[in-house]
Write a structure and sequence with these properties.
It contains 8 helices and 5 strands; from the N terminus they run βαβαβαβαβαααα. By secondary structure, the protein is α/β, with parallel strands linked by helices. The chain folds into 2 domains: 126 residues, Response regulator (Rossmann fold, 3-Layer(aba) Sandwich); 27 residues, no CATH class. Strands 2-1-3-4-5 form a 5-stranded parallel sheet, sandwiched between helices. α2 runs parallel beside α3 and α7 crosses α8. It is globular. About 11% of the residues have low confidence. Keywords: Phosphoprotein. It comes from Methylomusa anaerophila. Pfam families: Response_reg. InterPro entries: CheY-like_superfamily (IPR011006), Sig_transdc_resp-reg_receiver (IPR001789), ST_Response_Regulator (IPR052048).
């Protein structure tokens, strides 16, 4: 899953976005409350995705977006903002944002945009999440037989190590 940096002036919004992303299997590698923190956190963590509000104290989201894109032209930045003015949406996309999500938003909307920016459909992401859940469970006995002894032993060792059984 993706490594994400969440940038928003409001702590509650950062926590909400972070919770949605964590629930979907992503990892929040950092949070920032302003543009300066966002640029520093981006350079430190090099996340796969950034969610960025526009309205930030000091350096606003568009300036932070510019600085990040100038450092890394392939940065995946999703603007998440309550500003619904067409010129602001256009401006952020022109400056390199990959998508724009209006506040308020639903969990499904945010995750579908994240999936789209990551280049995967929501169905592919759900399939990957389901597979990840299966990976934490021991295999049924009939599967051990079809895998062969070596593969079954490796799977058993993987599950045992994951459970702390070394």
């Amino acid at each position: 899953m993706a490594r994400v940096l969440v940038v928003d002036e409001a702590l509650m919004m950062r926590k909400t976005i972070g919770a949605f992303l964590l629930k979907a299997g992503h990892v929040v590698v950092g949070e920032a409350a302003n543009g300066v923190q966002a640029v520093l956190a981006y350079n430190l963590h090099r996340p796969d995705i950034v969610t960025m509000d526009i309205t930030l104290r000091g350096m606003d989201g568009i300036k932070a977006l510019d600085k990040i894109i100038n450092t890394d032209a392939s940065a995946n930045i999703i603007v998440v903002s309550a500003l619904r003015k067409k010129h602001k949406v256009f401006e952020t996309l022109q400056h390199g944002a990959k998508a724009y999500v209006f506040k308020p938003f639903t969990e499904e909307k945010l995750l579908s945009v994240v999936d789209e920016v990551l280049g995967a459909t929501a169905a592919e992401q759900r399939k990957a999440r389901s597979a990840a859940n299966v990976m934490d469970k021991p295999l049924p006995a009939r599967t051990y037989h079809s895998l062969g002894n070596k593969a079954a032993e490796k799977w058993g060792a993987y599950i045992s190590n994951k459970a702390g059984g070394n």
